[in-house]
DNA sequence: TAGTGGTCTAGACCACGGC
DNA sequence: CCGTGGTCTAGACCACTAG
């Protein structure tokens, strides 16, 4: 194995050998992927890998730490490293900011704010925002358009405790979601995707036939554990889809 | 700042101070989150942080590297580290293995294999699997059930070049997707989610009314760059949803 | 007590980009 | 040229777990 004095392992280097930690990582990943090491099997200890690859412990440690972050191995201090049980066959789908996504496609983005009001929380909204039924909440409805075509009907509820000035904003230039992102950034988010039919009113607002199935993206966000917003985004099924591309090595590349 | 001789920063330690790299990470994350450092702003160099926090460069490097992995900063070798442009408001949704998911809920899982055949690739299938139209491909159709209720109609095409024995398998005990996972593990995957209407035949197979909107999950997988399988999973909208919960600090926790 | 992983240090060499 | 980040080393101390 080549050492510190060896050719570059720099990002840009064209035909450079992989970084040492990456070589160790690849080796372990291959043993797991090939089935040579089964789930639950013990992975060689850091010290064993140090001697086997003739690298320092920090290098082996980085390889194992990153594999653990990816969920391929489980590390237990004082015990050892093990092949993760049952490669949780989960994959990731990306949910991107609509405005950025549309503009990145080079298309025109517009947002019609249909409604901004203060209402009493329904049972559902109160539960979602962790408030009492009947408490005052902010409510907004907008239609987002791509090149003039409605792409999303956004039905949003906002917790006045964390965004008291929401109701007094001028939403002609900044859409509600954008305002919240800038002023009440969240640190936790929950998403749910459903396929449903639109109501007659929703179909009208989205300028689509009522028979068209829709994608419903429901999102809740929190900041420091306090609910910020609860929003239902309704997309005509023939005008919107969620997608992702994922490479095994760790970094997802979305397209 | 406390040093090597300081109290534990071990995982298990109850009231131990955070690890030094974590403290540096937290500091930078706070400056960004609070808005003190705007997108595009330069983050102090590793050397500056080393002197400011009186820690070693490796420690600062780990903090910055992990922030870069999370997409909060962008690092350019030879130039510097910068606050990431407009936190690409993307979030992740998990797509989990259906069989595991159902069993994890404590429900009964079953799979009816409707069909396994060899067919000539249509234009669409040929494009998806990177084959020529009319080339021979394997085709299977199954219905997956949760407690007897159809949850997914799986329409799968398999590249015979990478899974030549697919057609000769006995799928009474192992379902097609499971066979592929075990024998032709993939290293790249693409997912797309749509909301569509089921055809009459599909509605019958799923034992659902034809008017019910459906979630269509289309997946393609590759191994070493070669397409493995192209599968369309159709879910009745009222019996299935995709969901995720994401914490800001890095590791998504799905529920 | 011996082995494990978790963290940290104080150096080091390298490729890159801007000056 | 210098400062930047990317990587690597050969040690070190610690807490935890098991025999």
In short:
The structure is a homodimer of 255-residue chains. Helices cover 25% and strands 34% of the residues of chain A. Chain A is α+β, with helices and mostly antiparallel strands.
Quaternary structure: homodimer
Determine the CATH superfamily of the largest domain in chain A.
Answer: Chorismate lyase-like
Number of domains of chain A: 2
Main CATH class of the largest domain in chain A: Alpha Beta
For the largest beta sheet of chain A, what order do the strands appear in spatially?
A: 5-6-7-10-9-8
CATH topology of the largest domain in chain A: Chorismate lyase
Binned strand content of chain A: 25-35%
Number of E strands of chain A: 11
Biggest interface between chains: A-B, 51 and 51 residues
Silhouette of chain A: elongated
* Run of helices and strands of chain A: HEHHEEEHEHEEHEHEEE
User: Low-confidence parts of chain A lasting 5 or more residues at pLDDT below 50?
Assistant: 1-15, 250-255
User: Nearest-angstrom radius of gyration of chain A?
Assistant: 25 Å
Indicate the mean pLDDT of chain A. Answer: 86
How far apart the termini of chain A lie comes to: 36 Å
Binned, the helix content of chain A reads 10-25%
What does this structure look like?
- The structure is a homodimer of 255-residue chains.
- The first copy, chain A, folds into 2 domains: 20-83, Arc Repressor Mutant, subunit A (Orthogonal Bundle); 98-236, 3-Layer(aba) Sandwich (Chorismate lyase), CATH 3.40.1410.10.
- The first copy, chain A, is 25% helix and 34% strand.
- Chain A has helices at residues 20-33, 46-53, 57-69, 98-104, 123-129, 176-183, 200-205, and strands at residues 42-43, 73-76, 80-83, 91-95, 109-120, 136-146, 149-158, 188-197, 213-223, 226-236, 242-247.
- The first copy, chain A, has a 6-stranded antiparallel beta sheet. A 3-stranded antiparallel beta sheet of chain A has the order 1-3-2, covered by helices on one side.
- Chain A is elongated, with a radius of gyration of 25 Å.
- Residues 1-15 and 250-255 of chain A have low confidence and may be disordered.
- At the A-B interface, strand 4, strand 8, strand 9 and strand 11 of A face strand 4, strand 8, strand 9 and strand 11 of B.
- Chain A binds a DNA duplex (19 and 19 nucleotides) through residues 3-13, 16, 19-21, 45-47, 55-59, 61-62, 64-65, 75-81.
């Amino acid at each position: 194995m080549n050492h510190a004095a060896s050719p570059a392992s720099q990002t840009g280097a064209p035909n450079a050998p992989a970084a040492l930690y990456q070589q160790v990582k690849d080796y372990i990943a291959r043993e797991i992927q090939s089935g040579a090491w089964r789930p639950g099997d013990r992975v060689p200890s850091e010290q064993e890998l140090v001697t086997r690859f003739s690298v320092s412990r920090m290098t082996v440690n980085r390889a194992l730490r990153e594999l653990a972050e990816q969920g391929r191995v489980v590390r237990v201090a004082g015990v050892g490293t093990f092949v993760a049980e049952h490669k949780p066959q989960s994959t990731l789908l990306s949910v991107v900011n609509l405005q950025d996504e549309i503009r990145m496609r080079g298309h025109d983005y517009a947002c019609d704010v249909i409604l901004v009001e203060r209402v009493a929380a329904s049972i559902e909204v109160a539960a979602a925002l962790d408030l009492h039924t009947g408490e005052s909440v902010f409510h907004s409805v907008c239609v987002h358009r791509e090149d003039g075509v409605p792409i999303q009907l956004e039905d949003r509820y906002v917790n006045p405790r964390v965004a008291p000035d929401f109701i007094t904003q001028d939403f002609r230039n900044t859409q509600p979601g954008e305002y919240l992102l800038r002023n009440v950034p969240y640190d936790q988010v929950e998403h749910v995707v459903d396929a449903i039919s639109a109501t007659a009113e929703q179909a009208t607002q989205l300028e689509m036939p009522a028979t068209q199935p829709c994608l419903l993206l429901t999102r809740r966000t929190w900041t420091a554990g306090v609910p910020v917003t609860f929003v239902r985004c309704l997309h005509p099924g023939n005008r919107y889809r969620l997608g992702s591309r994922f490479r095994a090595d760790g970094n997802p590349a979305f397209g």
